[in-house]
Amino acid sequence: MRGVALLLVLLGVGAVLALEGEVSHGLYRGMSALYGVLAPPLDALRRSLDLPGVSAFLLGVLAAFAPCQVTTGAGALAYLARDGGRPFPGLMAFLLGKALAYTLLLGVALWLLGGPPQDPGGLFRPIRLALGPLMVLVGLGLLGVLRLPWAWPLPSRMEVGKGLLGALALGGLFGLAFCPTLFWLFFGLLLPLALASPWGTLYPALFALGSGVPLALFLGLVGRLGRAGALRALKRAGGWSTRLAGWVLVGVGLLDTAVYWGL
Predict the structure, then answer these.
(1) What is the pLDDT of residues 139-168, one digit of tens each?
(2) What is the CA radius of gyration of the chain?
(3) pTM of the full structure
């Protein structure tokens, strides 16, 4: 298993390095398609309601379909779905991590920068480039190919694949996965809403909560399968749910790397 996993990852890395920029742009456009379909009706609903708090939440729902959130959303789904019928504590930890990241960004924008970053590419691109390889590493950790350094000093229940600390950290990191679409939603639309409201400091949390709606729906389906016994059967077969999550994370991480390293 370990040798096969490493071989496939190496082949995937080779494929990523061989991709040309035009291929990356094509993948990025494909990942933007769903956002293009959902943005007009959700934006129209947000404007018609004219409720700042609800707008912050709906902007978060839109953010979940931003191209830079597609691969991270798939990776989060794979990571959280390992628990089968009980994925929601992990989801709450994941969304808390995102809420903390967004709140920190709002504070930096307001009190340190005096507004949105002037060079968002220079600020967020290194983080964006690191997330694909990070998902590959987490996937390899779930597969048992390697033990991630941040798990070494932790007790066994907190190692990769178990506990809420990993979900919290993953949420914080994935909250920093910005692209032009997400930058506009957060700094162009959410930031003015926050500035205009006395409750504006809560809006990043509403934004994070909205971004978790599609993930919650998918995890609800996973929970139903778990209660029906389908996923318990996989667990009895030797932890296949965790291994499947590992393979998905490796694949999604390679795709993420192919897209953003070529842009």
Answers:
(1) 888 777 776 554 433 333 334 445 678 889
(2) 19
(3) 0.82
